[in-house]
Design a protein that fits this description.
The complex is a heterodimer of chains A (789) and B (161). By secondary structure, chain A is an alpha+beta fold. Chain A has 19 helices and 28 strands. Chain A has three domains: 197 residues, Aldehyde Oxidoreductase, domain 3 (Alpha-Beta Complex), CATH 3.90.1170; 327 residues, Aldehyde Oxidoreductase, domain 4, CATH 3.30.365.10; 146 residues, Aldehyde oxidase/xanthine dehydrogenase, molybdopterin binding domain (Aldehyde Oxidoreductase, domain 4, 2-Layer Sandwich). The chains are: A alpha+beta (789), B alpha+beta (161).
Chain lengths: 789, 161
C-alpha cells in the first residue's frame, strides 16, 4: 500500500497555513498604492433612479472617483449574463431582464448597486458612500413569489407577468393516465425556504492594471477563476481574455455563492484601469446578505399516484421558483435541469411530469446554493413518500424498499432525462436503520412520552447528480459552456511533482486528495507533490469547483495526466534499460524490466528527461503531461439519512438526538475529508430545516433577516455529532477513478430526514424552517383542534 | 491622530490610528497580521477572536486605542519556534477546518475555554462556541479537536511563555 495513497484518512497538507494564520485570502493581499471601493446600494426594493449627485461628495477627503451605471455604459461595460438558456414549453426563449453592473434606470432590490465610490482609505470611501446623494422615485414592489404573476408592478418593464419561463419536463399524458387509474393519490403543498449562503469569508476583489502590459490582474473570491475571466472578457468587456488574469487565492468557503459573476468585480476591475491604481473592495456581512445570490425559494404542489400496495405509479410536480430581481449566472438551470431530472429519487416511478415557472421579484437574485435544485427535488420526493406511507398505513422504511430501483437495474433510465450509473439503495437504507436502531424506536418514543416529550424518527433517501457535466448533454440542454475539467502534471529535475488543476479548492482539501491520487498513481512521496490552482496565468483552463465535480471530473483528468506521464516514462526507461517498451512494467514509482532486477525510479526517469544525456532519438525531452476529461455521464451519489428528534411540546423546541448517515460516494480518496464534507452538508441542511430563512417584508421588500443577529445560522450547540458510514460503495462507471462526488449530499438529504422526523414527532407536517413557534403552533393544532378553531 | 502602543505576540508595537480604528483593523492593516479575519459586522461570527490581556475578545468590537499598554495574542503568536500549539495540532489531526476562515478565531476561542476548563464535556465545548460560526465543518470535527487538545494539554501542560 502506498503511504498516504488513495483511500487513506490523511490529515490535510493545507492545514498548516490556516491554523497558524498564514492563509492568504483576497483581503489579506495589499498592493502598493491601493485605493478602496465602496458600493452605494439601493435602500428601496423598487424605484426609479432620478439622479445620482456626484457633486455631493466632491471635495470630501480622499475621494478619487464616483462611478455610476451611466459611466459604465459609456465605457462599453456589458451587462451581466445568465449562462444557461431555457425555453418555455411553447418554445419561446426565457425572458432575460437586463442586469447592469451598476443600475441605470431602476433599482430592483434592496442592495442593488447604484454607484461605486473610490477613495484613498476604506474609511474615506465609506464616508463618501454614505454622503452620496441619490434621488429615487419609489415604485410598488413585487415581493411574494406565489402571487408574482398577479402583482400590479413589473420588475422589468418589458417582461409581462414577471414570468421568465414556463418550462416542463416529462410525459404529461402518461402521468394523467396513471393518476386516473391510481388506487390512491397523495398530495402536498411545500415551501422550500429561501436561504443566504453565508460563506464565512465575505466576497472581495482587488484589481490592478499594468499599463505597460495593458493587463488587469484581479484577485477574487472565486470558485472558478477561468469562468470569471471568460465571462468578464467576452460579455462584460473588462479586458480581452488573454489580458485579464484572475487569481483566486485561499477562498473562505463558497457553497455556490462564489461561482457567479457579479457586478462588483466588474466595476472594481474597470475602476482600477480607469484610475491607474489598484482598487480593493471587501464586502461587509450586511452587504453579503443583500448582494450574494440567495438559494432555494420554491413553492410547489406535488402529487404522487400509488397502487394499493404502495407502489409508485406517477409523480406530478408544479413548482414556482423565485429568480429574484435579475437572472444570476446559472439561475435558470437550478430550478429546471438541476431539479426536475432528480424527481425520480431512488425509486422506480414509471411516469413523471414537472412544470416549473420562474418569476422575477424585487428581491436579491437567486442562484445555486449547495445542492442547487437537488435538495428541492429530494424534499419533494421524500415528503410525498412519507405522505404515501401514512395514507396507506405502510411502514416508512418498507414503502421505500418496495419502490427502490434494484441494484441489478443499472444503468437505470428514469422518465426524466437521467440515466443513473450505479447504486444499492436498499443496502444503504438497511444499514442506516440498523445504526439508528429503527427497530427499537417505538420503545424510545414511549419512554419520551412518559417524560412529556414528543419523539420522532425520519428517513431521507437522496439521489444526487454530480460530476457536472457531460458537455454535449449540458450544452444540448442549454448550457453556454463545456463542463470538462483539466489537469497538468509536471516533474521537476529533482523528481518533485507540480500538479496544476483547473478546479479550485475553498475548503474541499484538493491539495491533499490530489496529492494522494498522484502519490498512489505515480508512486512518489505524498510530500513531494505540490498542487497549484486558482490562477488563470499558471493553471490550465478549467471550469472550477461546484456541483461536487472536482474529484469525479478534475480528479479523473489528473489521473489521465498521470497515465500519460507513465507512458512517456516507460519509453525513457526502455531506452535507458536497453529493453523493449513492452517489457517495462511500472509499479509504485519504479520502472522495471519484467522478470529482472533492472530498474529505474520515476525520479531517475525525470532527471533523464531533463538532462537527456542518453535519450530516445524520437522523443521530446521533459516529463510533463496534461489531460482534459469530459465525462460520458453524470455520477449519482446516493444515501440514506436517519434522524431522531425530541420535541418539547411546551416550547416547540426541536432537539436532534441522533443522526445516522450512510452514503454511497463510489470510491473515496480520503475518508477523513469526505466525512467532513458530509458533516458540513448535513449542518447546512439542518440549518435550512430548523433555523435559516431569508424573510422579506411583503410590502416594502426590505430583507428582515439581514444580519447574523436576525438570520439564524446553525451554531455548535444547535447540532449533534454524527454517525457517518460509507456504504461498501458502487464505483461509478462514469470515470475510471470511480469517484462520484460528496460535497453536497448532506445538504440534499438532511432537510427531508429532519422534517420527516418532526412530522413523525408532532403528527402534522411543519414548514421549513421548523422554528419553535411553528412547531408549537402545529402541536397545538394537532392536539387541541378545538382551540385552533 | 492618537498614537497607540501595545504588545502583540510578545513584541512592542505602536502606530498612529484614527480614533475609530478597531483592534482588528490595527492588527490587519497596520501590523500586517492578517490571520485575524473579519467575517461579519455585528460581533457574531467570531472570526476575529484574539486574546487581550489573557481573555478572548472579538477584535472587531474593541477600539485600537482601548488597547493602550495591553498584551495581545493573535493566531500568529500561538505556535512556538515552529511547533504548533496542541489546539492547532488537534484541529489539523481531527480535520477541524475546511476553508480555514473561521479557524483562527475558533482556535483562539478554544484556547480560553481550555485555560478556564481543562476538562470540558462535549456539551460544554458546544456551548462555549456559541460566539463562533463555522459554515464548513458542521462543528463535529471542531468539537472533536478541542476535546482531543484538552486531553493532550492535561497530560502534558505547556510551560508558560
Amino acid at each position: 500500500m502506498v503511504e498516504k495513497g488513495i483511500g487513506q484518512a490523511v490529515p490535510r497538507k493545507e492545514d498548516r497555513r490556516f491554523v497558524t494564520g498564514r492563509g492568504r485570502y483576497v483581503d489579506d493581499i495589499r498592493l502598493p498604492g491601493q485605493a478602496w471601493a465602496v458600493f452605494v446600494r439601493s435602500p428601496h426594493a423598487h424605484a426609479r433612479i432620478r439622479r445620482v449627485d456626484k457633486a455631493s461628495v466632491e471635495g470630501m477627503p480622499g475621494v478619487l472617483a464616483v462611478f455610476t451605471g451611466a459611466d459604465a455604459e459609456a465605457d462599453g461595460i456589458g451587462p451581466l449574463i445568465c449562462g444557461w438558456m431555457i425555453h418555455s414549453r411553447d418554445g419561446t426563449p426565457m425572458k432575460v431582464g437586463t442586469h447592469r453592473v451598476l443600475a441605470t434606470d431602476k433599482v430592483r432590490y434592496v442592495g442593488d448597486r447604484v454607484a461605486c465610490v473610490v477613495a484613498e482609505t476604506l474609511h474615506q470611501a465609506r464616508d463618501a458612500a454614505e454622503a452620496l446623494v441619490v434621488e429615487y422615485e419609489e415604485l410598488p414592489a413585487v415581493v411574494d413569489l406565489a402571487t408574482a404573476d398577479e402583482a400590479p408592478a413589473l420588475v422589468h418593464d418589458d417582461i409581462p407577468g414577471n414570468l421568465c419561463y414556463d418550462w416542463e419536463l416529462g410525459d404529461r399524458a402518461a402521468v394523467e393516465e396513471a393518476f386516473a387509474k391510481a388506487a390512491r393519490v397523495v398530495s402536498v403543498d411545500l415551501v422550500n425556504n429561501r436561504l443566504v449562503p453565508n460563506a464565512l469569508e465575505p466576497r472581495a476583489a482587488l484589481a490592478a492594471y499594468d499599463p505597460g502590459r495593458d493587463e488587469i490582474t484581479l484577485y477574487l473570491t472565486s470558485q472558478n477563476p477561468h469562468v470569471h475571466r471568460l465571462v468578464m472578457s467576452a460579455f462584460n468587456n473588462i479586458a480581452p481574455e488573454h489580458k485579464l488574469r484572475v487569481v483566486a487565492p485561499d477562498v473562505g468557503g463558497g457553497f455556490g455563492s462564489k461561482i457567479f459573476i457579479y457586478g462588483e468585480e466588474c466595476v472594481v476591475a474597470w475602476a482600477a484601469r480607469k484610475l491607474g491604481r489598484p482598487v480593493k473592495w471587501r464586502e461587509e456581512r450586511g452587504e453579503a446578505f443583500l448582494a450574494d445570490a440567495h438559494g432555494r425559494d420554491h413553492v410547489t404542489r406535488a402529487e404522487l399516484a400509488v397502487d394499493a400496495d404502495g407502489r409508485f405509479l406517477a409523480l406530478r410536480v408544479d413548482t414556482r421558483a423565485n429568480l429574484g430581481a435579475y437572472m444570476s449566472t446559472f439561475s435558470s438551470a437550478v430550478p429546471t435541469y438541476l431539479y426536475a431530472p432528480l424527481l425520480s429519487g431512488q425509486y422506480r416511478i414509471p411516469a413523471i411530469h414537472a412544470r416549473v415557472r420562474t418569476y422575477y421579484t424585487n428581491t436579491t437574485p437567486v442562484d445555486a446554493y449547495r445542492g442547487a435544485g437537488r435538495p428541492e427535488a429530494c424534499f419533494v420526493v421524500e415528503t410525498l413518500v412519507d405522505a404515501a406511507a401514512r395514507a396507506l398505513g405502510i411502514d416508512r422504511a418498507e414503502i421505500r424498499r418496495r419502490n427502490f430501483i434494484p441494484p441489478d437495474a443499472f444503468p437505470y433510465q428514469t422518465p426524466v432525462v437521467m440515466t443513473y450509473d450505479s447504486g444499492d439503495y436498499r443496502t444503504c437504507l438497511d444499514r442506516a436503520l440498523e445504526l439508528a436502531d429503527y427497530a427499537g424506536f417505538e420503545r424510545r418514543r414511549q419512554e419520551a412520552r412518559a417524560r412529556g416529550r414528543l419523539r420522532g424518527i425520519g428517513i431521507g433517501c437522496y439521489i444526487e447528480a454530480c460530476g457536472i457535466a457531460p458537455s454535449q448533454a449540458a450544452i444540448s440542454l442549454g448550457a453556454g459552456v463545456g463542463l470538462w475539467e483539466s489537469a497538468e502534471v509536471r516533474f521537476t529535475h529533482t523528481g518533485k511533482v507540480q500538479v496544476y488543476t483547473g478546479t479550485h479548492t475553498h475548503g474541499q482539501g484538493h491539495e491533499t486528495t490530489f496529492s494522494q491520487l498522484v502519490a498512489e498513481t505515480l508512486g512518489v512521496p505524498f510530500e513531494d507533490v505540490e498542487v497549484i490552482h486558482g490562477d488563470t496565468a499558471t493553471t490550465p483552463v478549467g471550469m472550477g469547483t461546484y456541483g461536487s465535480r472536482s474529484q469525479a471530473v478534475g480528479g479523473e483528468a489528473l489521473l489521465r495526466a498521470c497515465h500519460k506521464i507513465i507512458e512517456k516514462g516507460r519509453k525513457i526507461a526502455a531506452h535507458l534499460l536497453e529493453a523493449s517498451e513492452a517489457d517495462i512494467e511500472f509499479e509504485a514509482g519504479v520502472f522495471r524490466v519484467k522478470g529482472t532486477d533492472r530498474r529505474k525510479t520515476i525520479q531517475e526517469i525525470a532527471f533523464a528527461a531533463y538532462v537527456p544525456a542518453s535519450y530516445p532519438a524520437d522523443l521530446e525531452p521533459g516529463l510533463e503531461a496534461s489531460a482534459f476529461f469530459d465525462p460520458p455521464n453524470f455520477t449519482f451519489p446516493s444515501g440514506t439519512y436517519v434522524c431522531e428528534v425530541e420535541v418539547d411540546p411546551e416550547t416547540g423546541r426541536v432537539r436532534i438526538e441522533k443522526w445516522v448517515a450512510v452514503d454511497d460516494f463510489g470510491r473515496i480518496i480520503n475518508p477523513l475529508i469526505v466525512e467532513g464534507q458530509v458533516h458540513g452538508g448535513l449542518v447546512q441542511g439542518i440549518g435550512q430545516a430548523l433555523l435559516e430563512h431569508a424573510v422579506y417584508d411583503r410590502e416594502s421588500g426590505q430583507l428582515l433577516t439581514g444580519s447574523f443577529m436576525d438570520y439564524a445560522m446553525p451554531r455548535a450547540d444547535d447540532v449533534p455529532s454524527f454517525t457517518v458510514e460509507f456504504a461498501p460503495g458502487s464505483p461509478t462507471p462514469s470515470n475510471t477513478l470511480g469517484a462520484k462526488g460528496a460535497g453536497e449530499a448532506g445538504a440534499i438529504g438532511a432537510p427531508a430526514a429532519l422534517m420527516n422526523a418532526i412530522w413523525d414527532a408532532v403528527g402534522t407536517r411543519v414548514e421549513m424552517p421548523a422554528t419553535p413557534e411553528r412547531v408549537w403552533r402545529a402541536i397545538r393544532q394537532t392536539q387541541m383542534p378545538q382551540a385552533a378553531e | 491622530m492618537p498614537r497607540v502602543v501595545m504588545r502583540v505576540n510578545g513584541k512592542e508595537v505602536s502606530g498612529e490610528v484614527e480614533p475609530r480604528t478597531l483592534l482588528v483593523e490595527f492588527l490587519r492593516e497596520h501590523l500586517g497580521l492578517t490571520g485575524t479575519h473579519v467575517g461579519c459586522d455585528t460581533s457574531q461570527c467570531g472570526c476575529c477572536v484574539v486574546h487581550l490581556d489573557g481573555r478572548s475578545v472579538k477584535s472587531c468590537t474593541v477600539l485600537a486605542v482601548q488597547c493602550e499598554g495591553a498584551e495581545v495574542l493573535t493566531i500568529e503568536g500561538l505556535a512556538r519556534n515552529g511547533e504548533l500549539h496542541p489546539i492547532q495540532r488537534a484541529f489539523h489531526e481531527c480535520h477541524g477546518l475546511q476553508c480555514g476562515f473561521c479557524t483562527p478565531g475558533m482556535i483562539m476561542s478554544a484556547l480560553e475555554l481550555l485555560q478556564r476548563h481543562p476538562a470540558p464535556t462535549e456539551p460544554q465545548v458546544r456551548a462555549w462556541l456559541e460566539g463562533n460560526l463555522c459554515r464548513c465543518t458542521g462543528y463535529h470535527n471542531i468539537v472533536r479537536a478541542i476535546l482531543q487538545a484538552a486531553e493532550e494539554m492535561r497530560q502534558a501542560p505547556r510551560p508558560a511563555a
